[in-house]
Amino acid sequence: MPIALAPGMGINAYFTYQVVGPNGSGVISYRLALTAVFVEGLIFVALSILGLRQWLARTIPRSLKIASGAGIGLYLALIGLTYSAGIGAITGGGASGEPIRLAGCKPSFINSGTGMCESHQMRNPTLWLGIFGGGMLTAFLMMYRIKGAIIVGILFVSIVSWPRYTAVTVFPKTMVGDSSFNFFKKIVYFHPIKHTLGALDWNITGENAAQFAIALVTFLYVDILDCTGTLYSMARFCGAIDEETQDFEGSAVAYLVDASGITIGSLFGCPPVTAFIESGAGISEGGATGITACVTGLCFFISLFFAPIFASIPPWATGCTLILVGAMMARACVDINWRYIGDSIPAFLTMALMPFTYSIAYGLIVGIITYFILNTGAWIIARITRGRIVPHDHEYKDYWTYNVRGGLLPGWVKRAARGKVDFWREHDFDTEELGSRDSYAIAKKERESGGSNMTGIGVGPSDQLDGLSMDGIITGDRRWELEGPGYPMIDTVPRTDSRMHTRTPSMR
């Protein structure tokens, strides 16, 4: 999958400011918090192996899953508009009570107490460099499907921002600017991790035990919804979702690797690792396979040694990239079932609360609870009145069931329980069936050459059946169309023919 893993920003804030606290002032120590992350990762791996995450992703109502992708797009756009990771077009309302206010002023005009622009809104040169150099230029290149459009925009803005003594420099003549510029000039630098590598503390006793348990449970439920929702939304964004099964190929391995990243990351001193929503940038550039993720991992590895360069890429160089990717992800909202209130309101709340709560998990929680209350209430009323009182436009409701196709346990568990040696294989083919396909191909060639008038049956793709224009089954002069790869809607049963053993289709 073209999905990168990195410490999630939402859960990072909880880890840093509520669990550990500034300068270790939180409820538990940094080392004990890493232990909670490590244990949570092991539980997460077990849930992935047992298929709970896959089942959850398939069980969430369709409109909520689509809304989660659109909500992540709005979340990205909000990040791209802020000062800390974007172009600085908006800021918090501060004492005015407004949740968001127009910004875009130079740092010297920002009130240090409220974080608001006191004046000179939309007059920051870096804002306009980000809009036109990182936004308009990238969008123009994307209109013509030019590969690397996002990288071109980021590099252009970064290179323009690196020289000092300009209005858009990322190294102003301040103490912080001088320190950043001195670090930038090093080009190559490696920071050892001896203080964070394996820094786990297993002293879980006394008061620490209760706070440890609270942190563990919080990490777990947030990651179950956050990581699962993000991974599923990215899979849908790259077109990998099978609409019939609501799953994607290799999902078991993808969920397992995602969960393993949490445990491995904690050993290196990281808070919970998750599928990064910024993976949408690579997908929008055409990434569709794991090669994209491998290249991303290689770039992360290179950045270990060239940290001065990567750390000097200004936020206004990447802000518009996040906005553009968010716009592309938000297109999914047109597929939400807006015709039925029981689907549309939970979907809208999911989509709206993700950016406003700065959390993918909280958006999904609100959406799921709202969906359950509305639709369970409507179901109870319909049962009591024997179907006489139902919601308006109830016939447009998206079908939903907890008993999804495939069940709770993943396929490999079921195959292992049946004693399959190669239980990790997702598709099992019957040897006799494959032999019958080969027999048909031979018989068909003999009939066409006049060597035999036997009636046979063939099952297979058109490119293997000499001249057929589409996938189908042929028996004599009759034909059945197949449903798709693997031909799941067709069963075959043996039928003894006086001339040869053939198979006839049984349509269910």
From TrEMBL:
One GO term of the biological process aspect: guanine transport
One MF annotation (Gene Ontology) recorded for this entry: purine nucleobase transmembrane transporter activity
Superkingdom per UniProt: Eukaryota
InterPro entries: Azg-like, NCS2
Subcellular location: Endomembrane system
Annotated stretches, region: Disordered: 485-508
Name the record gives this protein: Related to purine transporter azgA
Source organism (scientific name): Rhynchosporium graminicola
